[in-house]
């Protein structure tokens, strides 16, 4: 078995506002694995400023993986435990090599017999831009919308109030993602305001790392709290248990590129299921290569909740996709 990698810069169609600022492009790395006449492809989807493995020796480690690709996967997993996005790319490449072509997790989804419901994502921006996106998603038939908040809460609150006046909680599920944008004191007020509007959940109301504060909020919140950035960098299985038992969140959000790939996500799922904590999967600006693999993986988990899977339509120079969106339903077309 041999391997090689190359860097790829995804270009946004329009500047995209995130908690990491406004993005014009997104760096990623494509890993290719070869054995006999067969080829497997995966995406090492680093997210600069957010990934645990955003460090100067990233490419050095990718090169090391290519030179050691023939080694036992358990050995490689241990060596790459501090590089979750590289391990994520490795898992994809080997699965793709095994199943050939566009497949990673064969299922009724990849046989084009079933689809998956996703939420509509509303990007940060001024009120007009956010309202324009919301109208578009509603016209497309979405029943679950996720809004990024925490930049201008007064305006964001007004948008949510308007939405609730038009659509009941039974008609439209609303999720919000604060990306750690509030202080604990602010979060307490916001959580009550969200509850008054029957908001489904809020992701990461305060910055990651303040476990005691987050535990206090989760213990008394009127709006369910989902951990997102809080999971990044928690590598050790026992530390995952400690985090969940201390904070006791209502939900967790799994981004495979940030939490150690599919095996890392499986670990989290096994722990939250035992604790009656909910979960769903979200993509993190991967190209269509990583997104395709995440969608296939997510379907096999059997969750009935709307998943946070992008459709790859953000970039001007994305790879060809096997994923197609019809309203809120995501389909695989090989």
TrEMBL record:
SUPFAM superfamilies: Enolase C-terminal domain-like (SSF51604), Enolase N-terminal domain-like (SSF54826). Coiled coil: none annotated. The keyword Ribonucleoprotein does not apply. InterPro entries: Enolase-like_C_sf (IPR036849), Enolase-like_N (IPR029017), Enolase_C-like (IPR029065), Mandel_Rmase/mucon_lact_enz_CS (IPR018110), Mandelate_racemase_C (IPR013342). This is L-Ala-D/L-Glu epimerase. Pfam families: MR_MLE_C. Keywords: Isomerase, Metal-binding. The keyword Metal-binding applies. The lineage of its organism: Bacteria, Pseudomonadati, Bacteroidota, Flavobacteriia, Flavobacteriales. One of its GO terms (molecular function) is racemase and epimerase activity. Residues 127-224 form the Mandelate racemase/muconate lactonizing enzyme C-terminal domain. It is an enzyme of class 5 (isomerase). Its EC number is 5.1.1.-. GO terms for biological process: amino acid catabolic process.
